[in-house]
């Protein structure tokens, strides 16, 4: 699956095997950060905003006390927390999309030119110096 249209993303067996091998030697107190294109949570499956085999990948991360999953694809800021996993999606510099369930489906949201810079932007992630926490800052191009 490529995740185009309303198909969900898919990590596939090779990436799941890589993740399993990558985290195997790590202690449970190791903070984990995962970068993904598609959301690894079922944000809005009707629009393909999720990953078909995300639960398989996330099952490999349950033993860790702190897991952060960062993704794009939906071109907007959305957040969720499920157990020890914090999910964060970022807006895009290309074009905004409608919120989940608003409108006919995913795709470019057409805005007046003077509103566009306030709807697109970027996310900055950095590790906080006093520990293993992350500072995630979302900015629009209008505020950058």
Structure report:
Helices cover 15% and strands 24% of the residues. It is α/β, with parallel strands linked by helices. It has one domain: GpdQ, beta-strand dimerisation domain (Transcription Regulator spoIIAA), CATH 3.30.750. The chain has a 4-stranded mixed beta sheet with strand order 1-2-4-3, with no helix packed on it. The protein has a two-stranded antiparallel sheet with strand order 5-6. The model has no long low-confidence stretch (mean pLDDT 90).
Structural class by sheet pairing and helices? alpha/beta
Question: Largest sheet, described in full?
Answer: 4 strands, mixed
CATH-level-2 architecture: 2-Layer Sandwich
* Strand neighbour order, sheet with most strands: 1-2-4-3
User: Which radius of gyration do the C-alpha atoms yield?
Assistant: 16 Å
As a percent range, the share of strand residues is 15-25%
End-to-end separation in angstroms reads 35 Å
Domains (count): 1
Predict the CATH topology: Transcription Regulator spoIIAA
Q: What is the CATH C-level name?
A: Alpha Beta
Mean pLDDT: 90
How much helicity do the residues have? 10-25%
Q: What is the CATH superfamily classification?
A: GpdQ, beta-strand dimerisation domain
The ordered string of helix (H) and strand (E) elements is HEHEEEHEE
Low-confidence stretches at least 5 residues in length (pLDDT < 50)?
A: none
β-strand number: 6
């Amino acid at each position: 699956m490529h995740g185009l249209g309303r198909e969900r993303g898919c990590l596939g067996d090779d990436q799941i095997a890589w993740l399993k091998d990558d985290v195997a030697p790590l202690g449970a107190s190791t903070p984990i950060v995962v970068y993904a294109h598609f959301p690894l949570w079922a944000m809005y499956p009707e629009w393909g905003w999720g990953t078909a085999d995300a639960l398989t990948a996330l099952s490999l991360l349950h033993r860790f006390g702190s897991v952060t999953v960062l993704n794009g694809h939906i071109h907007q800021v959305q957040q969720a927390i499920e157990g020890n996993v914090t999910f964060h999606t970022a807006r895009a510099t290309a074009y905004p999309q409608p919120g989940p369930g608003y409108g006919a489906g995913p795709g470019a949201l057409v805005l007046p030119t003077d509103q566009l810079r306030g709807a697109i932007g970027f996310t900055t992630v950095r590790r906080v110096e006093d520990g293993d926490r992350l500072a995630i800052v979302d900015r629009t191009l209008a505020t950058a």
